[in-house]
Amino acid sequence: MKKIIEFIKEKSYYFLAITLIIFIILIILGSCSNKSGNSYEKIEENMVNAAKKYYETRKNKLPKQDNGVVKVNIGTLVDEELLAEVYDPKNKNSTCSGYVEVTKVGNEYSYVPFLTCKGNYEPKYLTDIIKNVKTDEYGNGVYTINNELVYKGDDVKNYLSFNNQLWRIVKMDGEGDIKLVLATKTEESYPWDEAYNSEAEYNAGITTSYLHTAIRKTLNDYYEKNFTTESKAKIVPKNLCVGKYNENDAFDVNKECAIIKENEKIGLLTATDYQNASLDMKCTNLNSKECANYNYLAENDNISTWIINIYEGNTYGVFYLDKTISRSDSSNYLFINPVIYITSNSIISKGSGTINNPFIVK
Hints:
Distance between the termini: 63 Å
Radius of gyration: 28 Å
Largest sheet: 8 strands, mixed
Strand content: 25-35%
Shape: globular
Low-confidence stretches: 24-36
Number of domains: 2
């Protein structure tokens, strides 16, 4: 035994040296196995870094207008020696494809990677999820209305996490962009407008021009203060339908869209958004109490908001939603649930659409 111990002591430096060499070799092999990263997330990070370096010397190729978009693909980044050949971490014999999308947001740029490693890692688009939603035995689900895919019912899996906020998917429009309403009302209340109105003879607000209203300024201020650059890059400007109703009118998208404010990045729900969310066939008029039945926009106190449509009977009345639709003077202070549209290119990283496991926008 003594001789064995002495032998080990004599040879310990050799064992240590051999172990160290093996360790170094393993590190080198690991780093060489995929120079673009050994995980999909790392590859995407490398893609973004490479794209930023690419445009550092090509600023003239970046978009000039707000919300303008350019793309640079992996092949170009590899050719410019800014990115190593991208191999699938799960199949080292297979290369991956993809691109980085660059969007101008104010004075900044957002970089979003789109990576495809066939069979193992591919973009999961929100549009495809919405298209594949089936109705359950109670009728909850997605319906086609006027070339749009609309969520209807009181038990729909339309919760979505975006900008570190919880939203609900209202619909996917004909262009594939997705309309969202904030799932919780704002902590503060706001007037729709407070300007002096000669018809009312007090500061009842003026609703005849949405452009100049206090609510538009409030919403735009909310947009500027509450969304990150990366989130703003995914928000799509849309035309807002700010048309007029009387209290007993039938819901009518053409009536709503008789007056339009173009290219707005944030807005409010319309009357027909509320109607379309209900499964009750008797939900036909603004004053139909049945609209609150089987309707996720009426199921709890989290949705309590001014809507964007105004009252036809005077120049200071506006409608609001709190389980049912009612009319109020625009100078009153009420909560809001802001509405935005996100791009049809929105990718989901995970989630099932429930409140406890919402879809998460990547």
